[in-house]
Task: structure prediction
Amino acid sequence: MAIDVQGIRRDFPILERRAGEKPLLYLDSAATSHKPAPVIEAVASFYRESNANVHRALYRLAAEATELYEAARGKVATLLGARSEEIVFVRGTTEALNLAAHTVGEARLGAGDTVVVTEMEHHANLVPWQQTARRHGARLEAVPVTDSGELGLSAYERLLSSGAKVVALAHASNLLGTINPIPELAQAAHRAGALLVVDAAQTVPHMPVSVRELGADMLAFSGHKMLGPTGIGVLWARGDLLEELPPFMTGGEMIGEVWLDKATWADPPRRFEAGTPPFAQAVGLGVAVDYLAELGLVDVRAHDVELVERVLEGLSRREHVTVYGPREPSARAGLVSFNVAGVHPHDVATLLDQEGIAIRAGHHCAQPLVRRLGVPATCRASFYVYNTTEEVDAFLWALDEAWRLLK
Ligand code: 7TS
Result:
């Protein structure tokens, strides 16, 4: 069933504000999503009524806060088809991937091993692996991106056979929109004896994601891109893998026992949650998960595809516009990157801003990919549950106005 976008819009207080003279037309949800009133209210009421540090004290308020924090973990586990013990709360995708790279490096990487990434990674899933590879004397290899914006699968197979111990790649590219065929890539990685780490920052908010169906070993995403608060994210990993991994950060409740000269570690997931965790944010994320589950992620996905189809169709009729990534809307996440001939993306974004339209222009934290495309930057429009087909049309109209002024 189609989602009720007008009803959804009423839940998002920020959509009532104006951008200068114009209503806000927000097309940057790939960077961060807006928050519905139930999420804002959940965080506020946690601070008003239930605030205490978790996993520490015996008094009632702390027990209640701990229960709410653990209930949020349970909701995330259900969302992913995982077990609660496999859900590590972190501050976001970047921290999750740093945790993955650091601990997998310690446990599994040695001199002469290969780490496989791709040319379409966000820096958050590239730079931590560069650092880890360097620290352990491993090689870092990147799967190339084809001209149609997909992964070169024969190169992938070749790289796997060169002593690959870990593959780290995006479920969907935040620039191209390409959705990578994770189940197949995971099977091939496992045949080669490598772990598969998935950056799902652009998919978990937008479509049903089951970690078992993907066949991944680890998976990372951020709360703030899925209607939740900032400062909360998730690293999921197979239970037996988490058991094997050493801590990333140390201190706080991640310990078993501590002596002056040594310490032992708590079981997962606590082993990986050093310090005071972002518990109010986790509670907010739990409510965001409820909100998305209520809408139904199958329908959320269908809405994205409808908007992307309309944008792709509109842009393809404009000869001065180049679109990057797959042509087929169902092969993409809910975003479209493009350039306007002879016009710098920043100028396009600035003119659209004068119409109240927020798009992102830049390298989208994927500099190797932008270099591969041979452009300095791109414009990107990205969509979510509160965007309408009328907004897509207004965006296309504003792009035509910008072209008239800048060509
Ligand atoms: N991985 C991908 C695929 C992303 O799109 C992003 C953020 C990250 C990792 C990092 O997430 P964070 O929450 O830790 O910052 N992407 C974007 C973007 O496309 N525009 O702004 C942030």
Remarks:
- The CA atoms of residues 55 and 66 lie 6 Å apart.
- The chain has two domains: 5-31+296-406, 41-293.
- The chain has a mean pLDDT of 97.
